[in-house]
Amino acid sequence: MTIVLVLGFLLYSSWPLIAQQGVAFIVGSEWYPFESLFGMLPALVGTLWAVALALMIALPCGVAAAILSAELLPARLRNPLRFSMELMAGVPSVVYGLLGIWVLLPLLESQLNLLTGRTLLAAGLLLALMILPTIMVLAEDALRGVRQSQREAAKNLGLGWNATLCRVLLPQAWPGIRVATLLASGRAMGETVAVMLVVGSIDRIPEPFYNFLQPAQTLTSRIGREMAEASVGSQHWAALLFCGLLLAVIAIVVSLAAHRKASVVV
Amino acid sequence: MRLRLPLDQNFFGKGLVVLLAVPALLLPTLVLCYIFWQAAPVLSWGFVVGATESAGFGMADGIFPQLLGSLLLAVMACVIAAPFALSTALYYRAYASHRQQRLLMVMFNMLQGVPPIVFGLCGLVVLVNLFSWGVSLLSGAVVLAIVVLPLLVLNTLAALERIPQQYSEAGAALGLSTGAIIWRLWLPESGINIMTGLLLAMARALSETAPIMFTATVFSGVVWPDSIFSPVTTLQTHIFYLAQEGNDAQVTTIAWGSAAVLVLLVAAFGLLSRMLQKIGAH
Amino acid sequence: MPRYENFDDAINCKEATTRATTARSTIFCHGENLDGGTMFQGKRSVLSLAVFLLGIFSGSLHAALMIKVVGSTTVLPVVAEAAKQYRLMHPELRLTVSGGGSGVGVASIERGSVDIGMVSRPLSRFEIERLGNTIEVIAVARDAVAIAVSKAVFESGVQRLSLAQIAAVYRGEIRNWRELGGMDAAILVIDKEASRGTRHVFASVVLGNARARAPGATIITGSNNEEQAVISQSDQAIGMLSNAWLNDRVRAIAVGEGEAALLPTAENVAQGRYLIQRDLNILVPKNSSAAVMDFVGFLRSEKGQSIAEMVGFHPVR
Q1: Contact map slice: A 184-213 vs B, CB within 8 A
Q2: What CATH superfamily is the domain A38-263?
Q3: Which domains are present in chain C?
């Protein structure tokens, strides 16, 4: 049965390529289906930016929370924290979309004095919220996977808490944290609904390049918005499928990287 | 009382960690409280079980059709995925060689990494158009089944791996064939855990929106689906449609109410699986 | 908590946690041993589930007649409300209505997956070529595409704009309300997805070509609802909106040159004087069933037209 699934995969991936015979290179920067412009770049850049932003925000926070939970908190506080994190992990993404559109956007607009809150930053923040539980739970497990004897040895050597953390615990837990990051970024990349609502959906590369306070487009948002309206078999349809293919390929690469790194660990 | 704080490097290190972790500590509670606070005006038993075919944007008297649609999709998806997951897990445990095991694991990790919307896209191409199933319960359920399959397999595998090795060895020593071991030993032993995994998969299926948006749902007109080939309305897409408004205070409250119900539903499945776990541990 | 023997186990187990929703999944990862027999309660629940599903399966044997309608979000309120009323008269029917945009309506009719498609614009040449003789285009209401601005903009003095000015805004040539006689604030230009009927009509009148691009757009929204929400939440927005979605915070401005600028009032639309207006159409395949044609008739009847008026459109005379 897994073979069937793999077949399904290859089947759909060949679709757009069949229809793409006419279109030479899709790494253009303009997306306008009516003029047969199918540049992938704006959406790709948007996706990468959104994920990067999310990681930049969620990683420090999640790892810090993991350190807190694993090293500093007493056991009776640990469980509620973990429980609440896992509860949050279960909240459907569409509910995060609601939060984004009715809480986050007005907040951004008023605090940062923006023309519109629908920006990459909003998408990044929302995604950070969504991947925070993942990072925290996995990082905590990684930290607790470090043997107690390591900590005792550090203490015997006279290392303070800071030094123990930075020199002993984090390096040992690092593979696990790295895996957590990769998995979280995979999840962030594939998130559709919440991002669709807050990102602005305009196919434009932010200018300057690093300006995340501008509306932009991500691959998932584009697929979500245009999926139903492209007539089957048309070039637009094929281009959307190609977006999907791109998304799948990147996600698979990330996922494989996460697991290969895991098996290389001591 | 004099407070003696060791204001050394370690203290600041810990302080930094605590500071960075504050959002993580506060956010879950804040988020959940906010959802329920906003939903409070509209949450009532009538809201949950009332049903009208909503015409006009979200001005329904109740969200029962959506609730039903969500549940039906989730349950059907798991029912479809369960045999495949079970057989794959059993094969992995009982028959596969090391190389095959590694290969299977790689495949599942690959599948799990793929964003669900890609499966939705596939489903649109293959199920809705090619097979002409149309926008229907079945299309959505199959797509969701593919989405939860990796999760289900991994959970089932974990459930099977909890059976002590001695049991299987004892069975083999008694002369049972592999098939008999599976049927009479493994399945009854891990049945509860497999069910727990199933419930978790259902919870996961409940929270997916993108794959079912264009393969299974319509905006209005359906209360009880006639057949598996009819479309449904779901809580997730209902919230999505309502999210695109934002003026009418009544609509926003309905949206929050639907969100609260959805979160409760997901939590309920989780709680159920936990209870089942406790029963199984006896 | 038990430690993992190696990371492979940990990670593989953690797969479950990343996607699972409660703490119980982590139980699976710990090598706790079960002892004693357990009842296989799973069997019973699977059975009951099977019975339920069988019920749904067999339902297909006596399924009610279903009419599927898909397409423009502008036409949707009319058809959805009419569907509700129509069902009261014909309870054996099922009418499902869905949005997605005019583009979806056309695409779905092409695929043959729906019975009625809703479009809020005239069909393009290519579409007529493709669909041609197989469908009928029936108007169910008349609507104006209002150029909507936020309340603050309206009250700051911008109450009429010429087509050229609107085009300049959407091309990015004018970026501040000050240049149009309003307050000193950047213009939040709201464009729509290219396949939306409302945009099609707007672009063909204002930008000259139904498929023209709008380089000055700040964000892109989808349905009328979404756009209305953005305009009402902002103080600086301009967008293209169907007349029925205007409210206190979303105001229409008069369109035209100087004194000849007209608001999309009922009178102006009825007499065709407002510059940006369109028929709201439904696409009906010619070989549709009697039930479908009956419903179409209902839409065009007195009752149906009064529903259109109630929603905010103008009846088709």
Answers
A1: 186, 189-193, 197
A2: MetI-like (1.10.3720.10)
A3: 65-142+280-311 (3.40.190.10), 144-277 (3.40.190.10)
